[in-house]
Amino acid sequence: MKRLLALVAGGLGLRALLKRRSRPGSSPSAEDLRAKLAETKSQEPPATAPDPEPEPEPEPEPESTQPETVADRRADVHAKARQAIDDLSND
Predict the structure, then answer these.
(1) CB burial string 21-40: b at 16+ within 10 A, e below
(2) Mean pLDDT, residues 33-37
(3) pTM
(4) How far is CA 69 from CA 26, 53, 62, 64, 81, in A?
(5) Strand, helix or coil for residue 18
(6) Which residues, in sequence order, are CB contacts of 26 under 8 Å at separation 6+?
(7) Angle value at C-alpha 73, between 68 and 75, nearest 5 degrees
């Protein structure tokens, strides 16, 4: 019984696939699409790139005379991350 049901379902699926593939004019030809694309491109004005804004210069970091420890650097990174999160959440 299961084989019969699978055979019928497969046959119906195959029939639908063949029916869809044999429809003439259901999809536009490549030449039609190329002509439509050329027409669309000729109607659009040329895009101009926006003027890039000058990037602000980074502030120089004060140089310390002693090398920082790993804990100091980690604390600094965490403080900067918290500040960035606060800046983003306030926007």
Answers:
(1) eeeeeeeeeeeeeeeeeeee
(2) 88
(3) 0.28
(4) 71, 38, 16, 12, 19
(5) helix
(6) 20
(7) 130
